[in-house]
Amino acid sequence: MKTIVVIGGGFAGVYAARALERKLRRRKDVEILLFCRENYTVFQPMLAEVISGTIGITDVVSPLRRMLHRTHVHVREVESIDIENKTISVAAGFRPHAHVIHYDHLVIAPGTVTDFRGLPGLPEHALPFKNLADALELRSRVIRALEEADVEGDDPELRRQLLTFVVAGGGFSGVEVVAELNDFVRHVAKLYRRIDPKEIRVVLVHAQERILPEMKAKLGAFAQRILRKRGVELMLGYRLQAATGESAVLAGPDGSVTVPTKTLVSTIPASPHPLIDSLTLSKTKNGRLAVDGTLRVSGHDNVWALGDCASVPTKDGSPCPPTAQHATRQAQLVADNIAATLAERPLREFDFKGLGKMGSLGRRNAVAEIFGISISGFLAWFLWRTIYLAKMPGWGRRIKVATSWTLDLFLEPELVELRLGGAGGAIHEHFEPGQTVFNEGELGDRVYILLAGRAEVVRRRSEGTDLVDQLLATLGPGECFGEMALLESAPRNATVRCLDAMTVLSIPKREFGLLAANVPGLRASFEQVTARRAGLLQ
Amino acid sequence: MKTIVVIGGGFAGVYAARALERKLRRRKDVEILLFCRENYTVFQPMLAEVISGTIGITDVVSPLRRMLHRTHVHVREVESIDIENKTISVAAGFRPHAHVIHYDHLVIAPGTVTDFRGLPGLPEHALPFKNLADALELRSRVIRALEEADVEGDDPELRRQLLTFVVAGGGFSGVEVVAELNDFVRHVAKLYRRIDPKEIRVVLVHAQERILPEMKAKLGAFAQRILRKRGVELMLGYRLQAATGESAVLAGPDGSVTVPTKTLVSTIPASPHPLIDSLTLSKTKNGRLAVDGTLRVSGHDNVWALGDCASVPTKDGSPCPPTAQHATRQAQLVADNIAATLAERPLREFDFKGLGKMGSLGRRNAVAEIFGISISGFLAWFLWRTIYLAKMPGWGRRIKVATSWTLDLFLEPELVELRLGGAGGAIHEHFEPGQTVFNEGELGDRVYILLAGRAEVVRRRSEGTDLVDQLLATLGPGECFGEMALLESAPRNATVRCLDAMTVLSIPKREFGLLAANVPGLRASFEQVTARRAGLLQ
After folding, report:
1. What is the pTM of this model?
2. Residue of A95, A400, A514 with shortest CB distance to B158
């Protein structure tokens, strides 16, 4: 019995498994295993439509069990690959045992991940936009921001943060997200009686001089015109460099700019999956696996790679772009070549040029380049819908999406905030110099432990008729603050502000309460700190 | 300016606000405020359909902003009511400030909550079924269980837990949930190659001798017959009394029975909202607010209560049942009576008998009692769909649901597992005597602190040719265990089993790592414990 293991639940992995099923349907001595994180594959081109709810939340994804019939699907994360011993080890399920699985052929296609390393605050405060959970989270945050803005009538600073929506990255993904988000927010904001449409800012941040660099200049310019007309603010030549819970920090041509916002999406940058990092196979400069034209990883007869994590050479020498149309063709080729290897026949080389590119600009508008011809406006949008509908896997889903699109012509967009997610634990937070962590007199809702940076503790004192800030202490790494209000259920007795950019561990009240009450030594340790400070704060 | 505050986002609260809008549309001196937890109202009768995905996830709820046009909606939790000073205080949003709001008239309609107090393990391990998040969570758990069962081929005990689904409560809600769940699981299980349909158990637990006690005996018997025929196991005369992460403990006629399961739903018991508990208004024995026929809370001219949290007398003296048809009529009456009070006109009394009752039994089957006539089978199901469709708020939603139902006739059910929810924090867990917390040799994934009960720590030793369990220690409240594997990244070096029913605080690895690395004193305190035990465990 031969085992073919496919890693990855994106187009590359799933279509490879599907092509293998078809190609090897007569071989009873071969089993195909697919490992992936979710039990569905995301149809990326339509992911942005989840924001406005134009199509049903689950219609943008396809359950793997319906696409694959012979493959054994394992919804489990792969933790490591051992090329030497031809095994992979897989994360535990309900029972904490690791599973080790042997393979004869390995197909590596886990794709890329959003990589915020080196960008302070982004892992904590920026949303990626890659999978269904990201899209739903963004949607919920946008609705939450509108709900809060409608209530917080007398806090102009908070309203500005709530009503500004920032998307970083002007490639296809960033443009589609900003277009959908802008349409959605401006449309539904009318239902909020205390939100003035003029207060809403939707910003697209892009490092280059024009958006959609993958397309011809005139299509990029067209897209910019349409987005601007619909109210999107373009910040070209700016790069997202840091984020806090209240703002995005951008590096621009004239130094850095802070945009107040509570909703920040970053569609860049992507790095190959961490699983690839740990492999000692040959890679390109940007960390992708180097494969030859047959999709074999250099130096290994039974290891194949494809999709966004691989650098696949095309006939003219340049690497294949990371698009679905290339991934699905690579998937077919890898199946053909594995079948050929099993049958000891010669292998084929990858040869596909790409048919074109399309990007949606929201409401009945798009740009497209098909067989070299540029199309923009309504016709491009119509093509976009038609082509992607046809590309969706499964008839059931196509019918559902077509129906939703039809209903969307005369029904209003969805406005339900899905709040899921259980009790939150400790998280990291990032603060920029000058930013207030909390104010004297506020309710205590979390405890902070400073990991990097410095903070000042001040209290407002009346001096004659004036109110002045009195500096009580300066805090550095390793010190905690905010514990007093929680231990004593009292309002904050001082204001804490960031001096040098800080990373803190922030523990919510519920979590702190549970731990302080039960973990030996924890409460005592915080109480010591409080006692030491009590003198200071009198 | 007069302020009318409505508390509650269910049928009672939302329809009251709507009726007030209409009734007081000419009075510019009145403002209506509604406070609720979510920005939508759930259409309860169809909530069970979320499990199988027959209708779109968000189509079972209606956004409040579309139902209410003059009311100012605050999606905020009410924390307390001060009847004396005519104010309510509202939870903080992004800024940790409490808000205090004055009212002239107060309408209390927060409904009931699922109340697991006094039932060990239920708060942690049983799922309620009241709102959209509950329905989605159940759906995800069911799909997760199927995915895991498909992979865990060689662990019969775990498979039994994964493939058993238990619903407690044989009222309308429990019956609708078990019917949908059974249909869904049995239908989609065919797609899992390593699941034998015979392994699936769907159990309905009910304390009385027949289900649907609200209906005539013959309809209850019909429902039982249909459910049994479709594979639901009925455990009548059993009561859910405790739960662990691996089982439901039932008290039956012949003592207690343990049903292994990872999916336990409890649709009982419901108690009035905690907000009601804290009020010193007059209440009935079961904790509901006592109101007179005009829906006024006894002794207060400007405080009104309705819906499931209130005990509303009917003309014949018995209290109103907690159903939507009564809540919406009470909502209309409360609006009329508030308008009458403002205009100094006489009040009306509640007078409504109820039109009937209906319960869906899943796939094209239902039971109904309409104007005293009993109907069952396809006709009842057809009536169920028609009547509830007509009762849904908003034309848009009706069209969407009707379309989904039509597509569902020939498309396959949805199978996407939505995993949302961020990083989890510390949680409570419950263990029953004899249950294993973890086994020697497993990976360390959490640390435990014993809050109540006792555990034994044992290690397997070879004695000659036999393997025997050697008792290393007995643990009691306040002691922690499982820290060693995490501090040293080693497999569990002993097995821990429950002796007396235990409640533990269970801290996941990620959370423990974050805290141990950064909270002063925490790591040291755990290391001391480890050092003390090191001798024991050599």
Report:
1. 0.91
2. A95
